[in-house]
Amino acid sequence: MSHTNDSLMHRRSAAVARGVGQTHPIFVARAENAKVWDVEGNEFLDFAGGIAVLNTGHLHPRVVAAVQEQLTKVSHTCFQVLAYEPYVEVCEKLNELVPGNFPKKTALFNSGSEAVENAVKIARAATQRAGVIAFSSAYHGRTMMTLSLTGKVAPYSTGMGLMPGGVYRALYPCELHGISVDDAIASVERIFKNDAAPGDIAAIILEPVQGEGGFYAAPKEFMQRLRKLCDTHGILLIADEVQSGAGRTGTFFAMEQMGVDADLVTFAKSIAGGFPLSGVTGRATVMDAVTPGGLGGTYAGSPIACAAALAVIETFEEEKLLERSKAVGERLTAGLRELATKHAQICDVRGLGAMIAMELGKGGDIEQPDAELTSQIVVRARQKGLILLSCGSYGNVLRILVPLTASDEELDRGLAIIGECFAELA
Known about the structure:
13 helices, globular, Aspartate Aminotransferase, domain 2, alpha/beta, single chain
């Protein structure tokens, strides 16, 4: 039976819940490194990477080999029933990789949302406090607690009513939009004055580089002041590195570039090269605040995903992917900045390592977000064989999450297509 994208989209519409979105009306048949082929045989260059999941590319040979070998041994026991070495080894590796010169421990889960939920649980148990401060334009997940933390109602919680309480929102610093470090810190102090005493706040959670919010990186000064604020009041600092982690920013974790360490770090996405794995790594004393049985999950830290993660970490070392991440970032940023000189609508090109975005404004006005042009570029790029994603509070940011294993030729081809799209539409 031959399938077309249209016929499968029709079946999808009839069978799949409306709330599950889809950016591109494409059904993938196979993939390799930075390329995907749809059911009709069309080839696409993948600059989305499954939303930051494929830093090592689609089906990296090391990852495939590790998973195939694990499949000959055991696929599942539930770690809390019968343990297996790969889980422990992943925890050992993450305890080394997560920044912070203090003893660390790790717990593994399935998804980014789960990691964040558990980080909050751990923080509450460790501090015996319940409140959490999150930031404007944050994205922390789609489960009930993480929706409270996520700073965007539509579409994530539209029609679902109010999310769990005890979450307070501060301003994320963004010089581009007139929010200084002083403003952001003042907004935290305002929460302490107006909403919740510091002694009621368990944790402050933020993304070192905002993902869905638009790829804004937190200034070092802000991170340092936030760390000091947390230390003064006995509040735990949680760095959500689900999207920025696993080498995306040129260091294995973005926090390595922030001048301070978090107490708890969440990770997921690219850590297992396409297999579901997430986790929380943090200060051993904090992590051990939860009693046995309080953390875990049936599939959490599955043998398959752990084998994949170990292969990903090995690949980063063997193929020097952190250096490659910086090189990819420099090449793409230079290309996009050159494009910005030709098209006024590109108001800003920014990024940390290979976590790169450009923000579009009508007539070059950053305060007039051009979501329409952004959407048109995403569609036109697809028509030309390039898969892109947008993001940002106003849907006016184009983000690039290409596999770090993509060739220079592929990066240049992607840049050329983006250039063609702007020439035709802007």
